Amino acid sequence: MKIDETKCTGCGTCVPYCPAEAISLAGRKGPQPAGGRKKQNQVAVIDFDECAECGVCLRSANCPADAIYQQELVYPRSIRSLMSDVLTIAPESQISGRGTEEMKTNEVTGRFPRGVAGLAIEVGRPITGTRLRDVEKIAMAVAALNVEFEKINPTTSMMSDIKTGKFKDELLNEKVLSAIIEFCVRVEQLPELFGILKTVEKQIDSVFSLDVACRLNPDGSNPTQSYIASAGLWVAPNGKTNVGLGRPLIQEGLSK
Ligand code: SF4
Ligand code: SF4
Predict the structure, then answer these.
(1) C-alpha 90 to ligand 1 mean position (Å)
(2) What DSSP state is assigned to residue 5?
(3) What pLDDT is recorded for position 255?
(4) Dist. CA 113–CA 181, nearest whole Å
(5) From the CA of 44, how far away is ligand 1's center (Å)?
(6) Nearest CA owner, ligand 2 atom 7
């Protein structure tokens, strides 16, 4: 995103809208905005390297001078918008957002049969954000478990090698508000996964949360809960009951 300094009056309205804290007011060095009645000493500037191209300032700050504008987004910078702007549709998943619908519903492909846990590692948060090199570090660490990264997740499409979790080199310095790594493991692999994540969390300059999705046991108990508790992790349970309104689950036994 960019700001036309010849229009900006330095009112400061846009500054608090930025979830990347990339907009600030600075002393004006260039010409005064056209049509202004009084001298404007300040101008808003965007730290281009920190901007995640989320589009919030353009859509929400309602700039009174119409000074905020979207410059042409060219790859690899366009990835910032893909991962940070909630209105951008990911070509892989055909939905806005960074994960896949099936992660939440499990109703089309039955991606998580019994005995399998679906993992979504959500790296970065508004304000914190993340560079993709940190997302790569986490992906490469969990790849040691021979996981298969979810193919229609946009984060997977950024990998040059989906076996090792290596990202395309040109993307590593791109900043996004967050990215989600999706894959499955056998439930009994969870302790090893948690150990890997506890190690890699010390190596990144961001934050992440972990979503663990599974089907409940026939008696209603959660097959992942004891593993999570043993790892000393805090849980915020979140349930969803599918009643067959979507397409039917793949038949148990046919799913891998
Ligand atoms: S809202 Fe518009 S005029 Fe006000 S500081 Fe931001 S860019 Fe400048
Ligand atoms: S596009 Fe988003 S990250 Fe960039 S300056 Fe605007 S609000 Fe901040």
Answers:
(1) 30
(2) T
(3) 45
(4) 19
(5) 6
(6) 18
